[in-house]
């Protein structure tokens, strides 16, 4: 028998703005950061669980305080009870009426919920000695459905429909697993296309990525449209026309602006335009999608909960659904959205990059591939080559594929030395800059 | 010449849960709270500005920290510059890319934006010696349009359409102002209908309200439907059938549940059902509205920004638009939503109650009445008889109408003694309870 006896929360920030890594039209100088949670338990094994939420600098302190404010709800919970009721923590955190007021289920409080909920999942998977993707995939269909909060989505997906989707996917499961372990999950790279990079650096990174076997490239747009088009042509020169090119406007445009700009950018034959406009604008995305077909529309890294994704699907507002492992309130809500996407037959292409998002989403995509997706061949996972060295169990990329993690848990643990160096504002790196 | 030289932020909480004031189906035990901002200026007058955001207890500390985190952006700003560019603070706060990540424009960061933005408006109105409703109404149409951030809403409302709406409303302005000053703004009461009250208390409060001239009553539902219906019948017995009855489910229901329950509650002839389901569910509200007509649908106290309201209007998802003066990012966004509502000819019926929401919204409704609304006779303002004694310039109700405030500013200043008593957790009231 073991209980959660301590919740530690750290403000960890990396000074990525120095190199313009991660720069885009909306976010010119991000310092990639995490509100990082460590759960400690008693019992003979003294297991720990880690989870975090990702931010880009200022505002990380708000997620840290929100984790600390909600932490008392976790103290004293028994691992056996958490395993028996996989929604226990989600229900407790999302159901607190006072915290709910400052959301509900959105913004700071929901980002913090993700860190705490994911830390509990990490703990449970470690207790069973399995990576999260395996832990989830080994659950019964009924257990998987029990993870999901159907409140406000049952008009689009019922528990029994969810059971059917899982059964259907599992009927071809054995075959899928063999492929997945051998080849890994197909990935795309965003590493070459940041807006702050010089042309020469973009060309060099594109060439290196082609040599490394990458077949899918994402480029940031949303600056001056003439300049955007010039950069996209430059990327096409390097990657050719047989590889896929995706564009990302990071919400810079309005609706008619999106449609007009994509008429011009259609020249470079993009697979999708990502975040053309506000993530809240469901009806706007639907209008854009209709106007720019056959180019697809992708969004999700700032779509804040299952209720918004439900409507995006109902309104035919997206071609690719870019789940975010921190924006949604942790793995419980991620599973809800995977099931919704399968119901509407829209592929899930998770958002990654930042701090540790790649580490998180490989588990989500593998579980989706094995257990939920209608067409697993459409799954594609973002990859950004940043900050992996700080993780205890970093992602492994081979031939443009994520190779599946084997260590128990959610791959969410940051190395002790990195925690010491990058804790804000008292860590070594920050003290030396001030 | 005067500049902002200091931003003080206080955590103020009232232990309202003791009397179940404010109890509803979703929020059983709120402690009405405010993250309270005081701006200090130099210059000969040493003017101060106050603003706040409302929460119901836990989580207030997050809004306090968010105000503190953003406060440096206000330090050093000149009053003259703020007056010359009425969007300056809104643009600075909403445009900060790092803080934007933990929103965007929603949740804690947006609630805190409201407190800071509104404090600046309070300051500007005091500098001109006018109450906010008068300050706004005296602006030119071009100045009013300059308040609005059209990003993400210009597909529904252009600046020139906004100009036309103002001109149209102002063509009958003189007549309106005479009525408004004489009679005040028509109000409805929520004071009798809290879920935690006993039958006898509800009956007594209804009778007193009828005697005081109230013609519109709101009752909380969302518990057991049989019990809801029983309580509504009881209220009808007291208020008769000539007065209006509104129902409020505080998001307890799903969509088909809302439709089924409203078929039963139609018996008591409600004017509207408020918050039947999730405030994020635009398409869901539209389905409910269509199914339960002629009963109306009202929502807004948790609709988090102008982009969501835009879609609610585009999708025909509401009959009454319940703007919230803290949930939206302050007066700039409130004006945007008033204009959107006028464009779609939907009356704005502001959410009030809580801490100081009545004090805020009387200004909004008066400005709407004089300058924007298509049909001012449809404006109705919520009134709850709570906590007004803590304000320097509390609302005045006469014959179920808000009488217009005359003191300069936004009526947002809390009395010094109340601040000392209720500051959390060090104030006298909280020290004596612990």
Overview of the molecule:
The structure is a homodimer of 434-residue chains. The first copy, chain A, is an alpha/beta fold. Chain A folds into two domains: 4-130, Enolase-like, domain 1 (2-Layer Sandwich); 162-417, TIM Barrel, CATH 3.20.20.120. Chain A contains 18 helices and twelve strands. In chain A, strands 5-6-7-8-9 form a five-stranded parallel sheet, with helices on one face. In chain A, helix 1 packs across helix 5 (107-127). The termini of chain A are far apart. The mean pLDDT of chain A is 96. Chains A, B: Its EC number is 4.2.1.68. Chains A, B: InterPro entries: Enolase-like_C_sf, Enolase-like_N, Enolase_C-like, L-fuconate_dehydratase, Mandelate_racemase_C, Mandelate_racemase_N_dom, RHMD-like.
Provide the fold topology:
Two copies of one chain form a homodimer.
Chain A: E1 4-13, E2 33-41, E3 48-55, H1 60-70, H2 79-84, H3 88-95, H4 97-101, H5 107-127, H6 132-137, H7 141-147, H8 159-170, H9 173-183, E4 185-189, H10 199-211, E5 216-220, H11 225-239, E6 244-248, H12 255-265, E7 272-274, H13 282-292, E8 296-299, H14 306-314, E9 320-321, H15 331-343, H16 357-371, E10 381-383, E11 396-398, E12 401-403, H17 416-422, H18 428-433
Parallel strand pairs in A: 4-10, 5-6, 6-7, 7-8, 8-9
Antiparallel strand pairs in A: 1-2, 2-3, 4-12, 11-12
